[in-house]
From TrEMBL:
<feature type="transmembrane region" description="Helical">
    <location>
        <begin position="142"/>
        <end position="164"/>
    </location>
</feature>
<keyword id="KW-0472">Membrane</keyword>
<dbReference type="InterPro" id="IPR036259">
    <property type="entry name" value="MFS_trans_sf"/>
</dbReference>
<feature type="transmembrane region" description="Helical">
    <location>
        <begin position="82"/>
        <end position="103"/>
    </location>
</feature>
<feature type="transmembrane region" description="Helical">
    <location>
        <begin position="453"/>
        <end position="476"/>
    </location>
</feature>
<feature type="transmembrane region" description="Helical">
    <location>
        <begin position="421"/>
        <end position="441"/>
    </location>
</feature>
<feature type="transmembrane region" description="Helical">
    <location>
        <begin position="216"/>
        <end position="236"/>
    </location>
</feature>
<keyword id="KW-0812">Transmembrane</keyword>
<feature type="transmembrane region" description="Helical">
    <location>
        <begin position="332"/>
        <end position="355"/>
    </location>
</feature>
<feature type="transmembrane region" description="Helical">
    <location>
        <begin position="110"/>
        <end position="130"/>
    </location>
</feature>
<feature type="transmembrane region" description="Helical">
    <location>
        <begin position="294"/>
        <end position="312"/>
    </location>
</feature>
<protein>
    <recommendedName>
        <fullName>Major facilitator superfamily (MFS) profile domain-containing protein</fullName>
    </recommendedName>
</protein>
<keyword id="KW-1133">Transmembrane helix</keyword>
<dbReference type="GO" id="GO:0016020">
    <property type="term" value="C:membrane"/>
</dbReference>
<feature type="transmembrane region" description="Helical">
    <location>
        <begin position="20"/>
        <end position="40"/>
    </location>
</feature>
<feature type="transmembrane region" description="Helical">
    <location>
        <begin position="389"/>
        <end position="409"/>
    </location>
</feature>
<feature type="transmembrane region" description="Helical">
    <location>
        <begin position="176"/>
        <end position="196"/>
    </location>
</feature>
Amino acid sequence: MSKFTVKELLGLIKLLRIDVFFLLANILVSLPSIAFNQLVQDKICTNKFSVNETVCLNLEKSEPGYDFIRNQVLKETTSLKLYLNILTTLPSIFISVILGHWLDTYPGHLRYLLATSIFSIISQNVISLNNIHLITDSYSLIYTYLVPVLTGSLTTISLGTYTYATRKTPAEYRALRFTVLEICVFASLPICSIFGGRILESKPWFPNQLRNYIGVYIVSSICGLIAAVWAIIMIYDSAESVDKNAKSDEPSSDEVKNEKKKSLAQVVCDLINPNNYLDAARCIFKKKPNNAHWYLFTSIIAGYVSNMAYVGEQAISYQFAQRVYHFNAEKIGYYGSFPILWLALGALSGPPLFIHWLKFHDSTVSAISYASMMFNFMIRGIVYDPIVYFLSVIGIFAGVSLVLDRVIISRMIEPTEVGRVYAVTGIIGGLVPTLSSLFYTKIFQATIDSKPGLVYLCSGLLFSYPVINSIILSIARNKWDLELIKKRKQTPTDKELDKS
């Protein structure tokens, strides 16, 4: 195998500049997850129930006489996380619309938006350190999220990353491009799950701590600082696009330069203009040939439903593992990494296997992926044993759908509509955590004493709509896929030029 030269290595890093940032940003956000869950439970247990502190620190292994206290703590923790999801997601609806217009009109500002978002999340970590003492109320942790919520940090990172990747990647390579981004997400999750649990259960780095909460937040913040510096230095070409010949009624490069000469007040007024909301909606509902706009609409709804079933699991997964498997933080981190590894392997091998080797269309692969995810959730609701973490290999191709959702939508729209269409999906994404958390929390709280797995059975059934929608898209792909339509219209000369 030939060795990489320094120049080739730098070229590879340059190519994956947004991917490295996305990986670090996800570690920043996800690493404190286990510590946050455990800190909330410790606060509720010690402040609300008159039991020995040792019982609260080992609540998942407590004797049967403490089952009522354990279940009450788990129920109240899921309620707090529900309120937190409402606080953190609803403001993102407004932010998504503004941000979509901003990214289309001022793409060169992306690196500053990304760096600012990172610093907002780091400030959240710093504020959280002031609330680690168990004597403070558990609901005080909700206020630590105000800074990233008001600045739209999570929305900016997600929407900015995928808009950049779409603008910088030709349509035929977007499946692979988005696969790399999803691998960054999947890579961050087991890292955060394993190391987050181990750091939390390790010897405290500072005195007067029952667990090593501070250590988790310090490591998370260090990753965030690296991500912010990386964004400022490396994400300098966001104003450039691979599709320079796209025709639309959007601003040209000269018009964009003129936009930059506006005063700050004019820029702000432009961004909060109500027409931005209507403009974003028009990209979805404007009539397209062959009624392709309806395929776009149903695909967005399918993504909404699948994300509701998939994302909402985070609202109860930690408490479910303690209730059913009696795991502590370290075991949850260790065993929880296996399903994520299956997803990562599937996301990595799925597109090459199905798309490039078997020549399946993206929508066909999406149907396979959703079915894989549905069976995975159903098994978790039936099998009450830790072996389910290994049986989840049946959902190995579930992660492919997270890639193909965006790929399919990107093949339905023009390149100049990317920012606004992703803004609309961001609006829907802003509602997903709230509704999915409500769905998971209420079912889990109602069944925690007798049938805790029922919540996974219900969520598995939700995937039936995305499966059906993907099958319909596969059958009618010649009506909505702009790349297939373009190839049918090409003359032999055009095809020769494309090959060259």
